[in-house]
Amino acid sequence: MAVERTLLIIKPDATAAGNAGNILAMLEGQGGFTVKALRMEHLTEKSAQKFYEVHRERPFYGELVEFMTSGPCIPMVLEKEDAIASLRTFIGATNPAEAAEGTVRKLYASNIQNNAVHASDSPESAAKEIPHFFPSMTAEVV
């Protein structure tokens, strides 16, 4: 398997609840991910709209943008073998009620919207999402 990069965002609900450090420790410890870039920021409405434009036509789009601009979040680039699929498994199902025990969302999410983290779902998404937050980085490992 190839080493990949992917994007993870610790969302405003997890940051506000003081769970960012726990999530980061899980990612590096149990998950075996290497953090290649990380920062905290409060998304503007324009930035959140652009990032989630793939969902523009969905009924939850407005609420999602409002939620993601409600407080600081922590985007980061993670790296490891098969990072994208590994991270998706590690964080658990979008709906925390359906997430496996011990996953990030089972431990720290409160509902399907306030689900603690976002993670790229494909190599194509990672290639688009990483530069949104880290313009000098790519999804490619060099």
Q: What secondary-structure arrangement, pairings included, does this model have?
A:
Layout: E1 3-10, H1 12-16, H2 20-28, E2 34-38, H3 45-51, H4 61-68, E3 74-81, H5 83-91, H6 104-108, E4 117-119, H7 123-133
Antiparallel strand pairs: 1-3, 1-4, 2-3
Tell me about the largest β-sheet: 4 strands, antiparallel
Strand order of the largest sheet: 2-3-1-4
Which regions have little confidence, pLDDT < 50, spanning 5+ residues?
A: none
Proportion of helical residues = 25-40%
| Helix/strand order, N-terminal first | EHHEHHEHHEH
CATH topology: Alpha-Beta Plaits
Q: Structural class given helices, strands, pairing?
A: alpha+beta
Which properties best describe this structure?
17% strand, 7 helices, 142 residues, globular, alpha+beta, Alpha-Beta Plaits
Q: What would you note in describing this structure?
A:
By secondary structure, this protein is an alpha+beta fold. It has one domain: Alpha-Beta Plaits (2-Layer Sandwich), CATH 3.30.70. It is built from seven helices and four strands. It has helices spanning 12-16, 20-28, 45-51, 61-68, 83-91, 104-108, 123-133, and strands spanning 3-10, 34-38, 74-81, 117-119. A four-stranded antiparallel β-sheet has the order 2-3-1-4, with helices on both faces.
